[in-house]
User: Fold these one by one.
Assistant:
Number 1:
Amino acid sequence: MTAVAGAALPAFATSYDVAAVRADFPVLSRQVSGHPLVYLDNASSSHKPRQVLDAERQFVEQHYSNVHRGVHTLSQEATDGYEAARDTVASFLGAPDPHGIVFTKNATEAYNVVAYSFGNAAAGSRFALGPGDEVCVTEMEHHSNLVPWQMLCQRTGATLRWIPLTDDGRLDLTDLDQLVNERTKVLAFVHVSNILGTENPVDVLVARAREVGALTLLDGAQSAPHQPVDVAALGVDFFVLTGHKMLAPSGIGVLWGRRELLDEMPPFLGGGSMIEVVQMSGSTYAAAPERFEAGTPVISQAVALAAACDYLQELGLDRIAAHEHALTGRLLDGLHGLRGVRVIGPPTNDSRGAAVSFAIEGVHPHDVGQSLDELGIAVRVGHHCAAPVCRRYGVPATTRASSYLYNTAEEIDRLLEGVVEVQRFWGA
Amino acid sequence: MQTESMYQEIILDHYRNPHHKGLRDPYDAEVHHVNPTCGDEVTLRVHVTDGVVTDVSYDGQGCSISQASTSVMTDLVIGKQVDEALRTSEAFLELMQSRGKLEPDEDVLEDGIAFAGVSRYPARVKCALLGWMAWKDATARAVASSSGGAA
């Protein structure tokens, strides 16, 4: 450590054995560019522990078949494994009814299921939108929870509104009562921002949505992996997560919806498994969740997701959150101590997730990312699928470091040293 | 820092002191190209007189690779016949697609040979090509408009 940021940082205590956790992730012991890997790109995708890989492999090697189709033993075992995964995810989210858990291929598909279902609703249905109706989002949405709503509004003639941002990366709720009003049919917003790190006040937004009878959808892609989530306590109508950011493989996402809503919503994708009676003249549809799982679903990935939920719960989501909170505080303090570095997002560590975006004066984020890679440090650079946020803060892109349950204080310090090295190289 | 092998001094020089930067008149075509994965962008104008690229002017923002590559490109194409400039552009494209396996011809690419190392980083190849693709697009439009009788 050179005489920079980390030197003044306090000693670091954590609530579980991080070294033991790291031993579950083989990739964390590899070298990159001749240095031990420092993986701080977890908001983009996390690594997978042996327990999750083993669970998936064991399922595929011993119990795999298609689900909900056969009478043979493997078919039954595979179906049992798939449905047990649904139960595990429901319990992980505090969902009262596993039938509210719809498996999708990722979070993006989950938003689209809801947006297209609404678009398919018959006139007069509570889900139908038309001219005069409104959809409200926030200016900090990931493109996946923005573009589907833009498309829905284009198709139906509804109007898209958005809650703007304050200079320090929070939602500006000054005009909330105008933005979410009697015409609002859906309020879709992010729980924890992937680019700013902001944790939004779900209670305030849900309370306003309820006042006006709007449905709420919460993007939990960056919250469910990192902190305890209880959808019943949050009071939202829909909740979305994606597996690959929470120790599971890519290819599996979850849409949770209140059962009574899912049972009323028209389907999005048609095909096998989602039907009740099929005749040449028309078909009727299965109840949720099958109604929204057309075709052969993502089977072994769902089993792996359940194993990831078990892994996280065994360690304890509150302890994981506390560990990440301490790492985030260390990173924010260190960045604030460096000249020429600007944090894009909340400068303080309250109501905040583990993603920290920053700009280094005079060095483009791509060059920052490349230079850090040469030091073995993996961060994300770019607009993080949230281009309007970059525009809002007047930057073309940001550098983002995002920690997870396996990161250490030493790794945060290596990043801070790396930033200083980047500044030296680029003469910034 | 090993990146020094990718960030050649020539690249850093062009990045810090870009050639021909700034939008100028007259011009025959103007294009705006973006790299949607990183937000880099360039607005570029081309002026073609009697089949010769008489001026290329541009403005934009982006990383060192995209900015330096655009600067090098202007040095290489301004003053050349359109056909010859297009051949240079093909040579640069071939270099960038070589994954570090091609020995660049300095007679053809001049300062452009400094980007040979960039071709080993697939994520950065698009950065290096941003200005070149914009130039190619603008030049095609400029030639099309002049052959359409506008000149």
Number 2:
Amino acid sequence: MPDHDLSGSSRAITAVYIQGPVTLDPLDPAWIQTPETAITLSRRIHETGAKMVDMGNENRRIKVKVVHNGTDIFFFYQWDESTPNVTVNDYSLFADAFAMEIPLITEVSPIWMGAKDKPVNIIYWRADLARPENIVGGGIGTTQISSDTESQNIRHYQNWANGVWTVIITRPMTTASHNQVSLVRSATYRLALANWKGGSDAERGGNKIISDWLYLFIK
Amino acid sequence: MAIMRQIQMVFDLNKCIGCHTCAMACKTMWTDRDAGQMHMYWMNVETRPGTGYPKDWENQGGWFNADRNTIPLPHIHEGYGAPWEYNYKEVLKTEGGDTPAPKLIPSPDPSEYPYASNWDEDVGKGTFPNSYYFYLPRICNHCTDPACLEACPRQAVYKRSEDGIVLIDPKRCRGYRYCVKGCPYKKVYYNPEEKISQKCVFCYPRIEERKGNFCSTQCAGRISWIGYASDTKSNIYKLINTWKVALRLHPEYKTEPNVFYIPPLSPPTYSFTSKLTDSPRIPIDMLAKMFGDTHDQNYDQRVTRIKQIFDILQNERNIVASGGNSELIDILISRSEADRFQI
């Protein structure tokens, strides 16, 4: 079994409570006063999404900060990326992407897109999309962008500079519809993160790197 | 899921004149909708010998290759050809143009990306008087064992049970393009505007109304037949199974394509001393590398089959030439549309 370098990383993330409005600006004071958690993504799924296979020793580190003000919750993600890939307008071009997954109705779900009776709610960001997608999955190959416009209420900020992607994703804590998980104070949720490198790595679909299930506690 | 009926098509390469009416028909019907489709010709006509469309597709492989991870994805410009626009508005008085020295200029400049779907049209091979080429019209083969369907991890590609037509569900497709990589005929395309993959749909709305697919209907040369594989009364059944004059393109790809071709006869070559030989100008070797019945035939078996088909065609032609009747020649002439579509 290859060693995954989990040194300096954690599986527990706390969503800090901030009073008042928070903005989609990385320089917002909310971010400055919030400690970051380093998460390691080191697990790979087979390129067609069919099987979970440990492949190699690769580790990607994501810096995570989460804040909320009781109404909206904000997820701040930062990771190294030497070249940004922001377009899909040729056959060989794939854009950088990032996603977060929370079980939709159960406490735990299979990490690979959930299962029929244990669906998952995914927020999927990709550098070329106008806004992140709210997705529901009930197993490998079943993920669907939820069709109701209410659930496509996710706003974001994205910027690549000096070899670093910064992405901030926000949505109301109250669920817009049955296609979103409800996020409640004092509750703990499983959270998994996924990253795709675009460009010549051509990662998309099941060809991605993911974390283990993490624990998100909302203060 | 069982396929109840399988639609099939036969092209007679002896009749294709390379007019591209079929390609234009399909383009105006299906791939004229948005900028992302400009490079797509779901139906295209290639000159053979030639590099094909997309460029060099025969050497790019498909999902059944052992090394599927190394299959490249073509590029829109280098592989398909940059679709350009003309400055009609500047040049044509009817469009309001009024420049003093009007010049019709394409943009983007095609010389930046020198390729097009018919790039080496009519170039061919061989030295005069033995030069040769023929036209190869191609659509999606709606294979019985489609590589595109197998490649998709989301089951966005499916095969209809009522007619065996292979389609991509645009709502399920996420633009992963494994299907584009997977098709060994490179007949799935990617739309960078819609960010999904698209392909020939065999004009299924027309088939459902028992009309021919548009390429076949508009064909100026009346070169194609369509029908269902199990319909023993159909002309495609007679061509494929009774007369056995139709072959698959690259059956060694193992996808079991449902589009067949009658190989092209050609005039004999001249020898060095200007005598006619009994070798046809289009080398049988070249045809045997392209066409065969099934994936397990070897090269020699394919050569034998092509020679056999040529004998049958010549024989039936001779019968008619000396005043007799031939069912095969009647089918091949296809005087009316009803002769070509039995659906």
